[in-house]
Fold this sequence. Notes:
By secondary structure, the chain is α/β, with parallel strands linked by helices.
Amino acid sequence: MKKKIILIGAGGxxxxxxxxxxxxxxxxxxxxxxxxxxxxxxxxNYKVLGNDKILKNIRSEVQFxxxxxxxxxxxxxxKKLYLKATSFGFRFPKIISPSSIISPFSKIGKGCLIAHGVxxxxxxxxxxxxxxxxxxxxxxxxxxGDFCHVSTSSTVNGNVEIGNNSFIGSGSILKNxxxxxxxxxxxxxxxxxxNI
Length: 196
Ligand code: JB2
């Protein structure tokens, strides 16, 4: 039987999350919470059940939650919502698209979204609550910190380290063995050959 899950955030990224959660087939989405969308409004067949104030009460019926707000400039909203939901006892699963290719020798943290077409190679470690977005390539021996977003079609070559809370813009290419410090924001199409 599928486990029940609630999504936090009901914008564009939530649509991607819904698609991947349904493709994976392990969780039944019981609804979304959003601080600005009207209660009762819908994304596809899924209702906005209310705002974050209802999370505490929903916990008695639903064990799992997932961050469905995206992360472009800052990780702060995602982290705040994660801490709030965990304080109510929610658990955050990793959600992995069946169209991704993930090495069995890699490790992926809780709360991560691994989107369609992603490739994660051997001995790579991804921290908690990351978004590895559509068609990103993460090569062997890479370390990605917590609360990172590696955006669409980025290429992270072997042995790269990406610090916590970082954003790697769409289509970026990171040379092998470089280090990216915590809280880095790389604009789309960045080509990075040295440590930053
Ligand atoms: O504190 C909050 C809160 N603040 C904003 N709690 C809850 N539960 N929801 C919150 N929100 C809601 O997040 C907003 O009311 C809005 O409905 C949603 C953000 O939607 P938006 O479409 O603006 O962005 P997104 O974060 O879903 O997607 C961004 O990031 C993705 C990775 C976009 O830039 C996408 O294009 C991108 N693919």
